[in-house]
Every structure is written in structure tokens, then in C-alpha cells.
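quick one before i forget lol
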Amino acid sequence: MKAYEINKVLVPIDFSQISLNALETAVAICKRQLATLTLIHVVENTYVLFPPEAGGAVGVILPELVKTANENLNELAKSLRSKHDLVINHIVQSGNPADEICRWALHKEASLIVMGTHGASGLREFFLGSNAYRVVKNSPCPVMTIPGTNQWIDFKKILFPVRMVPHALEKYEMIRPIIRMNDSSLLIAGIVKKNDSTGFVEMKALVDSIRKKIMDDDVICGSEIHYCEGVAAEVLSISEKEKPDLLVITATLDTSLKDFFLGPYTQDIVNHAQYPVLSIRPQISDDLSKSMAEMLNYKAQNPPMAMA
């Protein structure tokens, strides 16, 4: 497997303090990883609120919103360039926020998306809950969600909950650049269904294999195994106890364990974690990548019909 590098970071901006807080984290990551930074602002299609029958308001409102957003984002990028030695680009796009963020991440071959989780755009919620989860679910690259409760610049302590899902070791490969550049310590928390003795044996073998790989990298690493009934609740409980700088989760669902993992595992954690969450999906094939691009482009060209 090709070594994962963080060289292109995409940051959705809605000019709220929450999104600007996430931007500070992204800037710190870019400086450590020598990565380029791209800011994206998505203007939602206002014709859903103002259909043509209402006098064609969209024809006036949308271009003005795009123009204003472009001016504001350009000023923000200019300010960042003057403060930091970074390559910074910016994009203003109209459409559905989550879809456009994922589409541009694919188009720009982003290696990481960093976004706030409770920002707002005008009178409408922008990154609240479901939108952040939709980005995590459809993004072609890992997504780091930053809650607006604090500011995180370094990731010295990383919590890595592990479930019995395919390619768990692959997820470690995805966080190696962060560990390397932050001199991080890592805690592996194996999550096993309550009273599942067979699951315990399998999990211990998995945790041991991951820990061996980590020890080979000279990383300070601890490990423990937790029995639980609800995975998301247990992961959130562990994070509250450990207070990590970064919580890494595998945003997948193993259908062979559907009775255990069924439910909004990723969504619950993204919405409720009080610490940054790095959500990693399995690496996608070229064919799937092409299909995703076609789907997102179709959505962009065929927006929802306006309500009568």
C-alpha cells in the first residue's frame, strides 16, 4: 500500500467562528505537513426558497451571494498568506454544501478535509450534525471534524478505538503522518460486544498486531479492551475519560456484525464528541472513485425541484 501523505487540505468555510476555529487547526496541520490549503464556501441554491414563480428572485440573489462570498473568501486567503508561509487557494460554489464539498475534494484530490461541526450560514444551519455526517459518509478522503468548544493545534494524545471491521491496520497507516509530525502517543481501545469471549480473543489478536506495527515505529503506545453494548456510547465514554487531542474512528459498517454495529455509530460520534474526530473510510478503488465523481456531478447539474 502506498504511504499516505497529507499534502492537500480542504477546509469548508461559512465565516462562522466555528468554521474559522477549524481553519486554525487546518493551518497548523498544513504547516507541519508542508501541505497546500484550499478554502471552499458553498452558497446554497436559493431557488429552493425563492422559486421562479416568486418573481425569479434566484436570478438576483444567487449571483450577489456568490460575488460577496468570493470577495470575503479572497480577503481571508490573502490575510492567511500574509501570516503563514503557505500555498492557499479558494473556491466559491453554489449547490448542496455536503455534495459540493465532497465533489471538490475528489476533483482536487484532497488528502484531508478539516471542518467545523456546529457552524451556521445566515439563517440556515450549515455544518450542524447531518451535513458533517454526509461529508464523512461520502468523502473520498479522511475527514477531521472540529467541535467549536476549544481550539486544537497539536495532537499529542491520540485515541484509536478499534472494531472488528476489515482493514483496521490500514487505518493506522492513515494517521502515521499526524503521529510522526506531532510526536504523538497512541492509545488503542479494542471494542468487543459484551460477554463475547470469542470476540475478545479475536480483538486481542488484532490489537496486538496493530500495537506491534506501532511499536516498530517507535511510537509510545498503550492498549486496552472494552466490553460494551453500544459502541458509540462506549467510544464517547472512553474519550471523556482520556481527553485525547484526536479521536480516530473507522467510518465503516461490517455487515457480518450487523446486530452489533447497526445504528448511527459514526454520526453519533461526529455529532457528540467533545474532541476532534478523524473519520477514515476504506480506500476506494479507481472505479468507485469514478462512480462517485459521476454521482456528485449529476447532483450538481440536477438540483432538487423547487417546492410549489
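fyi The chain has two domains: 8-150, 157-275.
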